Amino acid sequence: MTDIRAASKTPILPSKSLAGPALMAVTMVMTFLACLALGSTLLADSAASRWLTRATSAMSIQIVETAAQTAEEQAPNVLRQLRDTPGIKQVKQLEKEDLIRLLEPWLGAGNIADDLPLPVLIEITPDPQQPLNTQALAAEIEAVAPGARLDTHGRWRQTLETTAAALRLIAVLVLAMVTLATGTVILFATRAGLLANEEILHVLHQIGAQDGFISRRFEAHFTRSTLWAALAGLFSAWGFFYVVSALVAEAGSLPFLLTLTPIPVGAVLISWVVTRTYVMRRLKAGI
Asked: What's the pTM value of the predicted model, to 2 decimals?
């Protein structure tokens, strides 16, 4: 028993075994990639939700010139009809300067002539407390202004929803592949550690050490290595998203960074489960 207690204070596996650096390096990379996949998914999902909310809560009316009336002549009739329509919270007509700023990225600054026939754009904010019949509204504004068209952004919203769903699916697949690869690496590292220390295991058996005692030594070794490597991967991911926060402010916020912490926790759990399962199976099989 004295020998066993002394052995419990001494690691079975050497601290600088061949499997250690390789396991830590791969675990750190896998954790970093998993954090990137999870963080990118959260940012994309958050951005898509904001865009979808704006697209759902805002519509626009474009009024173009017809053979009989200019866009400016039709605008008062449309504004009057919108103010009389229930279910509309706010109506705003964009100024000519706003339209020019919207067109400049496409036509170039200073390339918009004064005689260019610009449409009239009216932004509509529906009342969330009262449903709005968009089909009836489209017919009503066309009746008072032949050049007016209601845009509910339906096609753009559908494209955005499809893109967001595709990003989520890709991120889930990446996380699954990273998880599988991490578990496989830990499994082979554990096997290499067992084979490299087979004589130590036989000696411990001969002095009366139980399988559970030996397994706990291996679990402590690989779990500790995985923990430090996973934390290094997490900190690297935090640094990456902190740099990205210059473009996306949300990426540098503390709540967002904390959402990445389940990744290293999951890596440590994988290490413990895989190590214990494999070591106990090998020990019961006689190594």
From this structure: 0.67
Q: How much helix, strand and coil, in percent to the nearest 5, is found in the chain?
A: 70, 10, 25
110 close to 51: Cβ distance less than 8 angstroms:
no
| Residue with token string 């994309």 | 44
Query: Residue 110 corresponds to which tokens in the numbers above?
Result: 């200073």
CA separation for the pair 186, 22 (Å, rounded): 10
The segment(s) of the chain belonging to CATH 3.30.70 are 59-152
Q: Tell me which CATH code domain 59-152 carries.
A: 3.30.70
Count of CA atoms in the C-beta half-sphere (13 A) of 52: 14
The per-residue pLDDT for range 98-154, each reduced to its tens digit, is 777 777 666 666 666 666 677 888 888 888 788 888 888 888 888 888 888 888 777
Q: Could you give phi then psi for residue 146, rounded to 5 degrees?
A: -60, -25
User: Count of CB atoms within 10 A of residue 176's CB?
Assistant: 11
Task: Give the integer Cα–Cα distance in Å for 125 and 121.
Answer: 13
Residue scoring higher pLDDT (160 or 177)? 177
Measured CA to CA, the distance from residue 168 to residue 172 in angstroms comes to: 6
Q: Which helix (H) or strand (E) holds 125?
A: strand 120-126
First to last CA, the chain: 23
Low-confidence winner among 141-145, 153-157, 165-169, 269-273 (lowest mean pLDDT): 153-157
* Structure-block tokens of residue 168: 């989520």
pLDDT digits (tens, 9 = 90+) for 16-50: 555 567 778 888 888 898 898 888 888 888 877 77
